[in-house]
Structures are given as structure tokens and as C-alpha cells.
Amino acid sequence: MGRLAQLRHRLEYVAFCALAAVATALPLDWASAVSGFLWRRIAPRLGRQKRALDNLALALPEASEAERRRIALAMWDNLGRTFAEFFHIQQILTEQRVVLEPFEKFEAIVAGGPFVVCTLHLGNWELASQAGLRFGLPLAGVYQKLTNPLVDRWLYERRRPLYPGGLFDKSPATSRALLKLARAGGYPAFVADLREGRGIEVPFFGRPAWSNPFPALIARTAGIPIYAAAVVRTKGAHFAMRIEKVEAQRSDDRDADVLATTAAVQARFEQFIRDNPEQWMWAHRRWD
Questions:
Q1: Terminal-residue alpha carbon distance, the chain
Q2: Backbone angles phi, psi at 131, to 5 degrees
Q3: What is the pLDDT of residue 249?
């Protein structure tokens, strides 16, 4: 790494730590509201706004332009809140601000033994592991490393306690480790709604989208169920977590099974998003 890159990373890290210090110093509800307000004011003026509106037009052609702009604005508010709330995760968990809906469904799922769970960038996805923590499950998570190693390490150290089964960076070695873990009775967890260039194409809002097949592959290989879950913002820094079983295909054709199950996961994600379109991260590249 060159000196200029190192300097840039240090400056970014200092700026990030300053923002973290401000967000941490504010009370949770204030931090969430202020950050949401600032993102609503600033983000629509940046380049990602166009991608968000283009994606909304592609996925929700029936919505008017005014409605798509309203959804995009609310999305930035949600992202701003999610950013600030990360620095108060322990308080959110301690105060049980995430309601499991319905609680009995979660109890039944836990009683059924190991499973694979997939979530998406909806509401506050950073809280998705909290159901596992509440029931004492050793969830194992996967994360995408950031280009700035200083910020990446800071975030890793704070995310790691949310995943008692381990927190792994996205890599081929991680794929093997998670498959081994699932076969041994573990609980792999994925955020699986982003574009996966080395994945497979399945329908998403009626259009082909490159998607991650690995959760479906793990579920099929280990013979365990697969679920889709979402943490939806209900009001301010309060949330509801919902979970739905995905019908995993199991036949003599492994590739066909993985394709069908991956499509079913993405279909469930699509329904979660349609129920709360203003809470999904429309600004990322999902379709080619």
C-alpha cells in the first residue's frame, strides 16, 4: 500500500471515529433521529440518488415519479438512522427494542434445530442476529471487508460479539468453513440481497439478478432448513423482526435445487421489500 493510500485511510478513519464519537455521545433516539434528518438532507444531492431512482423505476414501474422520490427520501432517512444506531446496538438489544413477530414462530424454529438464515438490507439489518442471541444460538455471520482496513477492523471488533459462532470475511475459505460448520450443527447467517457477480441469475422484481447461491447450497448439502428474515423499523429506534421458511428443493439434481431455492429466497426478499419499500437499500447495484 502506498503512502498516499495509507494517509487517506488514516484521514478517513479519523473522520469515522469523530462521527462515531458524536453518535455515541447522543442518546439513542436523538442519534437515530438526527442522523436520519441529515441523510435526508444530504444524500439526495449525491450520485447514488440517481441509481436509487433508476432501480425504483425498474422494480416498481407502477409507482409515480413522486412516489418513487418519496420512497428514496425515506430510504435515506432509514440508512442514516441505521448508521447512528450501530453505535448503540448493545442498548437496543438490552432494552429489547426488537420485537419478534410472532414470538411463538421463533420458538418453534429454534426448537427444530440447526438452520441457515438469510436477511437483507432492510430496516436495521445489523440487528438481525439478535433473535439468535436471545435464544442462545451460535449464529455464524459473513461480512464484506471494507477497503479501509482501519475502519474495517473497528467495525469487525464491534460486530464480532453478535455472532457467537464466528464472524467470517467473504472468501472461498469461508465457504468451506461454513459448510463444515453447518454439517456439525452450526447456524450460518447471510445478508444475501446484494449483487453476486459470481453467483447465479434468478428473478428479482421480474428481472434477472445475480444472486448468492451459497445459502441454498449449504442448506441442501447439510440437510437443514433455510429461512428468510427481516428487521423492519416500526417507529424511531424500535423494530419488529419477521421470519419465513423458504421451501428448499431437494432432488437428484443439485444445481436445479440450488437454483430453485435461491430463487425462493429472493422471492421472499422481494415480498419483504414490497411490504416496506422505503426501508430497503435501493442505491446499490442490484441489476446489470
A1: 31
A2: -65, -40
A3: 84
Q: What phi-psi label fits residue 33: left (phi over 0), alpha (psi between -120 and 50 degrees) or beta?
A: alpha
Dist. CA 175–CA 262, nearest whole Å: 16
As a whole number of angstroms, the distance between CA 103 and CA 183 comes to 27
Give residue for cell 461454513.
178
Q: Is the dihedral of CA 6, 173, 82, 127 positive or negative?
A: negative
Q: What does the pLDDT read at residue 83?
A: 95
Cα-only R_g, the chain:
19
Q: What amino acid occupies position 122?
A: L
Are 145 and 152 within 8 A, CB to CB? yes
Q: How far is 32 from 237, CA to CA, in rounded Å? A: 7
DSSP 8-state secondary structure symbol assigned to residue 143 = E
The string of DSSP codes covering 30-92 is HHHHHHHHHHHHHGGGSTHHHHHHHHHHHH-TTS-HHHHHHHHHHHHHHHHHHHHHGGGHHHH
C-alpha cell at 231: 428487521
Lowest mean pLDDT among 54-68, 73-87, 142-156, 252-266: 142-156
Task: Tell me the C-alpha distance between 244 and 2, whole Å.
Answer: 47
Residue recorded with cell 450443527: 185
In the sheet that 226-235 helps form, which strands lie side by side, from edge to edge?
98-100, 238-246, 226-235, 116-119, 187-191, 139-143, 166-169
Angle of helix 214-222 versus helix 254-275 axis, rounded to 10: 120
At 170, is the secondary structure helix, strand, or coil? coil
**Every domain of the chain and the residues it spans:** 3-279
Interatomic CA distance for residues 228 and 166, integer angstroms? 20
Q: How many CB atoms lie within 10 A of CB 97?
A: 20
φ/ψ of residue 237, rounded to 5: -95, 45
